Amino acid sequence: MHITQMNRNVQQGFLYVTGLKFKQLVKSWYAHYSAFYSNMDKRMPEIELPVKYRTYRSFERPAISPDSRYLAYVTRDEGKIRFWLKDLKTNKKRKLFKTGYRSDDKPDESYPLVAWHPGSELLAFGDRS
After folding, report:
1. Which among 77, 86, 74 has a CA at the least distance from the CA of 114?
2. Which of 13, 64, 71, 124 has the fewest Cβ atoms surrounding its Cβ within 10 A?
3. Distances (CA, A) of 114 to 6, 62, 87, 98
4. Three-class SS of residue 69?
5. Using one digit for the tens of pLDDT, what is the confidence trace for 81-120?
6. How many angstroms separate the CA atoms of 106 and 28, rounded?
7. Domain coordinates of the chain in residue numbers?
8. Euclidean distance between CA atoms 19 and 62, whole angstroms
């Protein structure tokens, strides 16, 4: 952004920094994110998730076990991250892991990661810390 202020031209600033013309940069950016989010529907659960909603808490990374018995998900509350496992048959939930602290900083929303083993016996949880 500093280069764009020096040149007083946004397109020239991006060309100097990235080596791409602005229109080409936008096309490349659009193609990348279109491909990245093209399989979003495949990752979404087919049923409505049975969780209580709070305005200050976000629910992320829902993952239903392959045998449809369990729901694993992450809650984020102003920087605090909690990893939950809910039994969909008994409707009981259990907190498996917590990390983080309350902060006004913007969190890295690419973490944590949640994945089930195809046999439903193992659940993987990855945090960058």
Report:
1. 74
2. 124
3. 44, 8, 16, 14
4. coil
5. 888 899 988 989 899 888 877 666 666 666 677 888 888 7
6. 26
7. 2-39, 45-126
8. 39
